[in-house]
Amino acid sequence: MNPQLAVGRLSHCFGGLKAVSEVSFEVGEGSITALIGPNGAGKTTLFNLISGTIPPQTGSIRLDGRELAGLPPYRIAELGVCRTFQTTRLFPRLTAIENVMVGRHARSRAGFLAGLLNLPYTWREERAIRQRAGELLEELGAGDCADEAAGSLGFRKQRLVEIARALAAEPRLLLLDEPAAGLNLHETGQLAGLIRRIRERGVTVLLVEHDMSLVMDISDRVVVLNYGRKLAEGTPAQVQSDPEVIRIYLGGDHA
Amino acid sequence: MRRYLPVLILAAVVIAVQLVVRAAGAVYYLTQATMAAYYCLVTVGLCLLMGYAGQISLGHAGFFAIGGYVSAFLTTLRLEAAAPASRFLSRLGVLAERQDLYENLLLGVSPWAALAAAVLATALVALVIGLPVIRLKGHYLAMATMGFGLIVFRVLLGTRFLGEADGIGGVPPLPLFGLEVSGGRAHRVESYYVAWALVLAALLLAVNLIHSRVGRALRSIHGGEEAANALGVNTTRYKLATFVLSAVFAGVAGVFLTHYNGGIGPSEAASMKSVRYVAIVAVGGMDNLWGTLIAGALLNFISLRGYLGSYDDAFFAGILILVMLFFPDGLLRPRWLKRGAP
Amino acid sequence: MPFDQILQYFLAGVTEGAIYATIAIGFNIIYNTTGIINFAQGEFLVLGGMIAVTLSAFLPLPLAIALAVAATMAVGALVDLVFIRWLASPSVLRLVVITIGVSILLREGMLHVWDEKVRALRHFTGSEISSVRFLGAHIAPQALWVLGIAAVIVAVLAIFFRFTLVGRAMRACAANRTAARLCGINTRWMVTLSFCLSAGIGALAGCALSPLTQTQYDMGAPLAIKGFTVAILGGLGNSMAAVAAGLILGLLEVFSISLLPLAYKDAVSLAVLLIVLFLRPGGLFGRLEAQRLKEF
Questions:
Q1: Chains meeting B at 3+ CB pairs closer than 8 A?
Q2: Tell me, what's the ipTM?
Q3: CA B54 to centroid of chain Cα atoms
Q4: How many domains does chain B have?
Q5: pTM of the full predicted structure?
Q6: By C-alpha distance, which of A215, A219, A253 is closest to A37?
Q7: Which CATH number fits the domain A1-80+171-255, given the four candidates 3.40.309.10, 3.50.50.60, 3.10.105.10, 3.40.50.300?
Q8: Which residues in A lie closer than 8 A to residue B231 (C-beta atoms)?
């Protein structure tokens, strides 16, 4: 598999704290890769670095060979990297469908002047955007709340809308930050199916997760972080049996 | 095109007001109504900036004054017809003659060329100031915009060729398709309609923008800038564009009001004016265009008629505080106007 | 420029700078305890001066000043109790706008009580024409009072915040409000106290300044802007830096007169404000992190 995302010796310090230290790994195209590790291991910081929210201090992030480090977040989104957030960050006063329509922003053109003057070419584009957004919401099972304010939606619906929004941008790489947080067993199973369907559309998935059963179930590869450093990398089976990984999760010696 | 309905309603109200006032023989009310329109124009732009792009501006009166002063200065120039610069400008077609009180003919820049220059100047200043200002937040943003407004005020107050404290007077009327924007009683009705037509045009643009892809992007910025960025929205560019647009609205209002009043003074740039604009937008509800308009029309009219007496400034400060303390969503939010974009 | 003229300018700049630094310290106290920038800080100076002028007509000067300071502190407490305490979840925007509104209300109130007449407090010692010779330059005794009072304020505050229980409690609020509350500190009263303190400092400075610059109802805003510029220049919240920054701005302003027309003198400090906000919002002495965090 071609490495779609290649993270090379990425580092970032907050003051004296080395949040991410010399982390290197690759994410294969069309794969589902999981990033795991104890709290404070630097997983969300890593996401922030990849999505451009924080500029990395050293190291490189390449998407299909193209350097992302140092680019502004909106540019990285245009290049095909989209993310969800640990606590859903929908735009509360926009409706669900409007939220997803914002997701289409990177794949549409109508500019400031065209908007001001309501130029005809924007009418067709707007219809297309709305239609696509509606389709995505339906697909993810949130079609019934399309016209409700996003801030008033239930927790599970909010997560679905956020994923729909990220998918609307037609990303090549989708970063999911703890998508299973707060979901029960049944819902996590549905999430697993959803992630697999996303992969089938050709989207590479990189997810941060604490739910080990989900991780082991759907991931092709797993990367383990601890204290900002990469501890281990491999298939779920390999990582599961790695003594170092067992130690940091369970402490002490376990067979 | 349901979104344009309120614009049509407003147009009807504007016409109705004029007819009623004429029937009641109280045409003099039109004067304050005309001036109120120009101040409303500023608040329309400010509403877009504060309510949609989420940037407070405590110095918008500065843009109003820049627009007004540029056009006032240019149209009241006394150029020597024989001078090479004058002949060059004349060839460009930007000069115009006007008569002063003694029936002498004076040569200055034509009002329309001056308008263009004023718009350009305002846009440029907004661009230059906007770039660093856009990146600021919270108190820093408030102070930077306030500082900008104050600098404009101080420079206008202290510059000899801009009239210092007296400002610039003798500004000729603005000719418009055979009509005229000026303070003369004969032109009262047409000035009134021109003023409100401008406001309606600005509202049309604003409504278009809000319902467009960029408008949605602006609302997303307001709803969560980091998430918006992560979805490909170039927040800096849109915030800056909105800033410049709102500045241009204010500058145009300044130009027209200057022609209407026949002059302009540094008090138009005073921070109290900026606070008023913010108060009106706040009372109307930050992102509520129609609320801002209603609040602007009413409050400006009341203030201009002098009904508030010496408590004018205190009144605006008071309602601003009240709204901020108890009604941060504004006072004018009927439920059918509420959800999402107006 | 001949040396004694430079020295003259220097002394003028230092005197002005001392006032600006005092205003900045007033900002910092409230900012440190609450995160709010109190735009009404300038009005406290004017209010103190005005009350003192009125009282000094029938009371001895020191008593008039003391009562003026006390009255202004009461007003400061009122500002907090009436306008700030209500807010359960204040956003920065609302607070900014509210304190601006309060400053306007105070100003209009002063206008209606004292109208637009310019008033001035008696010189503490000497009169308008007395001066003290200092290395070839003349300095008014009142200017020395200003410097002295500013120095005393800084010293007393330093001791207060470092060595007294209340002062330390206020610093605790500034560092971490929730933790302070968990330690049993009544944060709400700390906020009120910080408003009182800032108002008192402002009033005292206003009284000291009044004989030199006269007092008029609308002098608050320009003073506040300059005070804020100094506070930002030194780094918001850092009062020692505010002293240095105050001196810098005072000197800059005074020496700018030799280059620019007098009418632009106020524009100089505004330009400094914008430059600092655009280039280095953390201030000259601010940490790099504070710079990058352009938001609260």
A1: A, C
A2: 0.88
A3: 18
A4: 1
A5: 0.90
A6: A215
A7: 3.40.50.300
A8: 74, 77, 82, 102-103, 105-106, 165-166, 169
